[in-house]
Design goal:
This protein is mostly helical. The chain has one domain: Tetracycline Repressor, domain 2 (Orthogonal Bundle). Helix content is 67%, strand content 0%. It is built from ten helices and no strands. Helix 2 crosses helix 3 and helix 9 packs across helix 10. It is globular. The termini are far apart. The model has no long low-confidence stretch (mean pLDDT 82).
Length: 180
């Protein structure tokens, strides 16, 4: 019989882990500006100065990193294009993990709360084009991050995730104020 495990907490280890997580997020965010489809796990790890295994340990996958970047951007209160790009790139990366599986799953029809919050922030900061309602922005963001949009554009890999992200970002321009 194995001895019972005891709870072990090390403030130093927790601080180091938080620092590693922060470095990975910052690296992904910086690289996302230069790589429209989102950076690779190897590129993120290299830029953060950690191993690929560390990235997987903290985020599980490339899609997990991009989703965390999008979430961190939303929490920070920023809603510039990089935030919208992060949300779109995160969705594209997620759908690209296993398109054949997602094709078989029912399509969720309700927009996520975070998309609603992103649309509201864009509106509050006057980033939406004149005449674009909050509901329209929410609907467009939900459509652009849907599996159906990804699947149509990705065409089973005939288009790269970077190309899909760029097409979706051009489409997102339909709700954004061109003057900002």
């Amino acid at each position: 019989m194995a001895p019972p495990t005891r709870a072990y907490r090390s403030p130093r280890r927790e601080s180091a882990a938080a620092g590693t997580r922060r470095a990975i997020l910052q690296a992904a965010q910086a690289l996302l500006r230069d790589r429209p489809g989102g950076p690779t796990v190897g590129a993120i790890a290299g830029h953060a100065g950690v191993s690929r295994l560390s990235v997987y340990h903290h985020f599980g996958s490339r899609a997990g990193v991009l989703a965390a970047v999008a979430e961190a951007a939303q929490v920070s209160g920023r809603s510039d294009e990089i935030d919208l790009r992060s949300v779109i790139a995160g969705a594209v990366a997620h759908w690209a993990t296993d398109p054949s599986l997602f094709r078989r799953l029912p399509d969720p029809r309700e927009p996520h709360e975070r998309l609603r919050e992103l649309a509201a922030r864009l509106a509050a900061e006057d980033r939406l084009r004149p005449g674009c309602s909050l509901k329209e922005a929410e609907d467009v963001i939900a459509l652009l991050t849907s599996f159906a949009a990804f699947d149509r554009l990705h065409q089973d890999g005939r288009r790269s995730t970077a190309a899909v992200t760029e097409i979706l970002m051009r489409m997102a321009g339909s709700i954004l104020n061109p003057r900002t």
